[in-house]
């Protein structure tokens, strides 16, 4: 009977799989109907079913954990938490935080006595999850639970108000920043070590008694849904910390255009970590939106974003006195600063106006801009590569080399490209140029620019190239449905086009999986921010939450590696393994296409451009499949209860 059963299963699967390069890894019957499934950024498979939430072992298909209390849930209540091994399930009555590896519930707001959640923080070094909100009586409540076993360490009813930041200080101490006060807590017990007003204005409100309390409540209510701009700084892990906040300065309507303009100030205060007291008599106030600061030997360098009115300045740490410009009023530059790079010989400033982007070079030893005039660039700068005596920069639209001593560009015409269409290999940077349709090569030693390809490639289906990858035998370029390769001698090896299915919903899981893979690759990119920005924007068009997750993979990789808790260590190991897998490269890609009336997931060779395998996903308008683009596994719901894993390699 067993041989017949195996033969029947094989015959059933044959219509769904073709070619030897795609194989069935496992096929399992789950005990309940499958509603949705997701592969997390760390590679775990989570299935939502009629009777519970299920974790499936990706190697065997066996159920590794299940939670019957979380059954019959919509997909939109599931949210993976960036920088963590957790995901949340939000229902009408509670928030559940669950470990995606074990299925263990590490936090349950209902059990903690929280009726409303305002904010929560994952404190890896302290093995704690800190959650603030309101209890069943509408009173403020903060609880701390252990990540490791979900037990509650402490709770308190302190009226913190709106919490805008929580930072681990070490020595079992936690700094909490709110709209009006700063706190230092003992993270193990919840004991308040000190509480202090975070500004003179807050201190004055505190002295007003009941009226002050009413004013605080009003301010809390007004700011409830506002995006508070506040940055925390602790240079060199010293005994002083700084808070930078953005405040609206004024607004008005211009008579000519009828538009409302809003101006900002960025305000800074310095505090003692020992007791929370203010260090300065008055806060440091500069014009413009909150952007960047740098802590130099001689003072605090403030780089605001104030459009055409921006002034940068260095402020004395003790007196707050401005040290640069006429009467210490700062140095005017073109546009508001949104990024910078310390090259060792000076600081490259990246700024923008409403219409253009600019580069300036700052000599911090004398407080002077060395360029005669700012260098105008196309697009937003997202990546910078220091060369021997120059800086190669890449924007969302172009690439060029800047001579930092003269303030001139190497090439009269910039390469029209994007971060995802560039790659470094063997001392050269390859870039696809949209304007010419050719692949350009930049020698990073001589800084010479040349054409690699001789033949322009035009993608079909109204698509443009999206990604460039260096392989052993050439330069592979692709979009969603087009694949092409140039040989290293510049000849076009192949160009293939595979038509897309009409139903856009089919591509969501593929888009997300591909973007997660690209994010891992970008985590070690020579310009991380550029790779991240490109990936994030692409996936956001399909799934906003996925875009946020992809945006933080690079940061999570670094931060988790520095944390001490077992959760952080295990997550870091998993992320490291997946990062290593992406470094190894792969000679195929997934393409979603159509075959007669069916939708098929194709394995397309990067070596030849040909189809090496396919999985038939049927005709469903709302497909239930998930893809791990790092391991090459595809998980498909063949029937209501049947889950099949295909391995593509």
Descriptive report:
There is one protein chain. The protein is built from seven helices and 50 strands. With 649 residues, it is α+β, with helices and mostly antiparallel strands. It has a domain at 408-497: Beta Barrel (Lipocalin), CATH 2.40.128. The strands form twelve sheets. Strands 27, 28, 29, 30 and 31 form a five-stranded antiparallel sheet that branches. Strands 32, 33, 34, 35 and 36 form a five-stranded antiparallel sheet that branches. A hairpin with a 5-residue loop joins strand 43 and strand 44 (492-497). Helix 4 (507-522) packs antiparallel against helix 5, helix 4 runs parallel beside helix 6 and helix 6 (544-562) packs across helix 7. The longest helix is centred in the C-terminal third of the chain and has 19 residues, at 544-562. Residues 1-17 and 528-558 have low confidence and may be disordered.
In short:
The protein has 649 residues and is α+β, with helices and mostly antiparallel strands.
Approximately what portion of the residues adopt beta-strand conformation? 35-45%
CA distance, first residue to last residue: 32 Å
Radius of gyration using CA atoms only: 28 Å
Mean pLDDT: 83
Topology:
Blueprint: H1 2-13, E1 17-18, E2 22-29, E3 34-39, E4 45-49, E5 52-56, E6 63-67, E7 78-80, E8 86-90, E9 95-99, E10 105-108, E11 114-123, E12 128-135, E13 140-146, E14 152-156, E15 163-170, E16 173-178, E17 181-186, E18 192-197, H2 200-206, H3 209-222, E19 230-233, E20 240-253, E21 260-272, E22 284-287, E23 289-295, E24 300-305, E25 311-315, E26 331-332, E27 336-342, E28 347-352, E29 357-363, E30 368-369, E31 375-377, E32 381-386, E33 390-395, E34 398-403, E35 408-409, E36 415-416, E37 422-425, E38 428-433, E39 438-443, E40 449-451, E41 467-471, E42 474-478, E43 482-486, E44 492-497, H4 507-522, H5 528-540, H6 544-562, H7 566-583, E45 588-595, E46 598-605, E47 611-616, E48 625-628, E49 633-637, E50 642-648
Antiparallel strand pairs: 1-47, 2-50, 3-4, 4-5, 5-6, 7-8, 8-9, 9-10, 11-12, 12-13, 13-14, 15-16, 16-17, 17-18, 19-20, 20-21, 21-22, 23-24, 24-25, 25-26, 27-28, 28-29, 29-30, 29-31, 32-33, 33-34, 34-35, 34-36, 37-38, 38-39, 39-40, 41-42, 42-43, 43-44, 45-46, 46-47, 48-49, 49-50
């Amino acid at each position: 009977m067993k041989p017949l059963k195996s033969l029947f299963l094989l015959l059933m699967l044959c219509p769904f799989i073709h070619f030897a390069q795609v194989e069935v890894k496992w096929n399992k019957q789950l005990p309940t109907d499958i509603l949705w499934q997701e592969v997390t950024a760390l590679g775990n498979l989570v299935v939502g079913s009629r009777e519970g939430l299920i974790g499936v072992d990706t190697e065997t298909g066996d159920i590794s954990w299940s939670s019957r209390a979380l059954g019959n849930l919509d997909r939109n209540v599931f949210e993976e938490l960036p920088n963590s091994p957790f995901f949340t399930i939000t229902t009408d009555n509670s928030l559940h935080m669950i470990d995606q590896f074990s299925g263990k519930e590490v936090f349950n707001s209902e059990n903690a006595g929280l009726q409303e959640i305002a904010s929560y923080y994952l404190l890896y070094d302290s093995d704690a999850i800190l959650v603030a909100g309101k209890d069943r009586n509408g009173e403020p409540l903060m609880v701390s639970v252990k990540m490791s076993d979900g037990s509650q360490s402490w709770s308190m009813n302190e009226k913190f108000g709106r919490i805008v930041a929580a930072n681990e200080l070490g020595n079992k101490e936690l700094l909490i920043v709110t709209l009006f006060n700063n706190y230092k807590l003992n993270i193990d017990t919840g004991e308040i070590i000190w509480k202090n007003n975070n500004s003179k204005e807050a201190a004055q409100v505190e002295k007003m008694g009941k009226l002050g309390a009413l004013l605080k409540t009003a301010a809390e209510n007004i700011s409830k849904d506002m995006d508070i701009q506040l940055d925390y700084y602790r240079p060199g892990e010293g005994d002083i910390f700084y808070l930078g906040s953005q405040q609206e300065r004024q607004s008005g309507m211009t008579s000519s255009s009828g538009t409302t303009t809003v101006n900002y100030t960025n305000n800074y205060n310095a505090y003692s970590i020992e007791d929370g007291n203010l260090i300065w008599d008055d806060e440091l106030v500069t014009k413009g939106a909150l952007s960047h600061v740098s802590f130099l030997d001689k003072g605090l360098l403030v780089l605001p974003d104030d459009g055409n009115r921006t002034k940068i300045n260095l402020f004395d740490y003790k007196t707050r006195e401005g040290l640069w410009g006429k009467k210490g009023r700062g140095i005017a530059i073109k546009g508001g600063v949104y990024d910078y790079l310390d090259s060792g010989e000076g600081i490259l400033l990246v700024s923008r106006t409403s219409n253009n982007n600019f580069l300036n070079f700052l000599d911090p030893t004398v407080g002077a801009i060395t360029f005669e005039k700012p260098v105008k660039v196309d697009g937003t700068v997202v990546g910078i590569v220091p060369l021997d005596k120059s800086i190669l920069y890449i924007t969302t639209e172009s690439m060029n080399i800047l001579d930092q001593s003269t303030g001139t560009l190497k090439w009269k015409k910039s390469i029209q490209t994007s971060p995802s269409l560039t790659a470094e290999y063997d001392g050269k940077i390859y870039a696809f140029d949209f304007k010419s349709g050719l692949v350009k090569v930049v020698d990073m030693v001589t800084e010479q620019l040349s054409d690699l390809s001789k033949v322009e490639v035009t993608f079909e289906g109204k698509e443009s190239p999206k990604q460039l990858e260096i392989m052993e035998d050439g330069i592979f370029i692709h979009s969603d449905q087009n694949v092409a390769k140039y040989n290293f001698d510049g000849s076009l090896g192949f160009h293939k086009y595979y038509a897309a299915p009409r139903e856009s919903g089919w591509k969501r899981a593929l888009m997300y999986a591909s973007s997660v893979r690209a994010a891992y690759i970008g985590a070690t990119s020579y310009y991380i921010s550029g790779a991240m920005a490109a990936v994030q924007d692409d996936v956001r068009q399909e799934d906003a939450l996925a875009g946020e997750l992809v945006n933080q993979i690079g940061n999570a990789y670094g931060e988790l590696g520095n944390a001490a808790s077992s959760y952080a260590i295990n997550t870091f190991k998993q992320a490291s393994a997946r990062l290593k897998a992406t470094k190894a490269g792969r000679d195929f890609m997934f393409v979603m296409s159509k075959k007669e009336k069916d939708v098929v997931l194709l394995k397309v060779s990067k070596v030849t451009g040909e189809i090496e395998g396919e999985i038939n996903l049927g005709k469903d308008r709302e497909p239930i499949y998930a893809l791990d683009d790092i391991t090459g596994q595809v998980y498909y719901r063949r029937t209501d209860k049947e889950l099949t894993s295909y391995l593509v390699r």
